[in-house]
Amino acid sequence: MVNIRFLEGGDELLEKVAPLWKRLNEHHQNISTHFSQQLHQVTFAQRKEHWLQETRSGQLRIDLIQTEDSYEFIGYCVTICNQTHGEIESIFVDDTYRKMGFGHLLMLRALDWLDRQSVKTKSVSVAVGNERVFQFYEQFGFLPRAIVLEQI
C-alpha cells in the first residue's frame, strides 16, 4: 500500500500540476482521433491561463496527491466553479498508481467541494478517443449528454 497525503489549494499549486498535466496531454495526443496535432501545440502555460481566466468569475480548487515516502506528485484534480455550475476541468493519476482508488478519492474531494459551493449543475468533458473513462465517471452520476463536433 502506498502512503499518500493530499495537498489542496488554489492557483498557488498550479505549477505543481504542470508535469502531470503534460503527461495527460501526451495521453490525449496519443488517443485523439482527429485533434492530435492541435493537442500537441497546447502548452501548460496556455492551459494555466485558461484556468486563471475561468476563475475571474468563479473559484478554482486543486487537489494533489503526493507520496509520503518520495514526495512525488502522482495525481491531481483541477475543479472550477461559478455561482451555478461546477466542472471537473482536469484529472489525472500516474499510470503506476491507477486502479488503487486515487482517482476515486480525487473525484470525491472535488465533488464534495462543489457541493459546498452549492452549484446547481456539474460536468466533466471527455476527449474523443478516451471513452473508456465513461465507466469511471458513471459511478459518480456523470452520463453522456451531448457530442460536440468541431471543424478542423
Structure description:
There is one protein chain. With 152 residues, the protein is an alpha+beta fold. It has a 5-stranded mixed β-sheet, sandwiched between helices. A hairpin with a 3-residue loop joins strand 3 and strand 4 (85-93). The chain has helices at residues 14-31, 36-41, 44-54, 102-116, 134-138, and strands at 4-9, 59-67, 73-81, 85-93, 121-124. The mean pLDDT is 93. Helix content is 36%, strand content 24%. It is built from 5 helices and 5 strands.
Write the layout of secondary structure elements.
Blueprint lengths: L3 E6 L4 H18 L4 H6 L2 H11 L4 E9 L5 E9 L3 E9 L8 H15 L4 E4 L9 H5 L14
Parallel strand pairs: 4-5
Antiparallel strand pairs: 1-2, 2-3, 3-4
Summary, kept brief:
The chain is of the alpha+beta class and 152 residues long.
Quickly give the structural class. alpha+beta
Overall body shape: globular
Strand order of the largest sheet: 1-2-3-4-5
Helix fraction, binned, reads: 25-40%
> Using DSSP, what is the number of strands?
5
Helical run tally: 5
Radius of gyration: 15 Å
Distance between the termini: 45 Å
The oligomeric status of these chains comes to single chain
Low-pLDDT runs: none
Query: Beta-strand percentage?
Result: 15-25%
Average pLDDT number: 93
String of helices and strands: EHHHEEEHEH
Main sheet properties:
5 strands, mixed
Question: Which terms would index this structure?
Answer:
152 residues, alpha+beta, 5-stranded mixed sheet, 5 helices, 5 strands
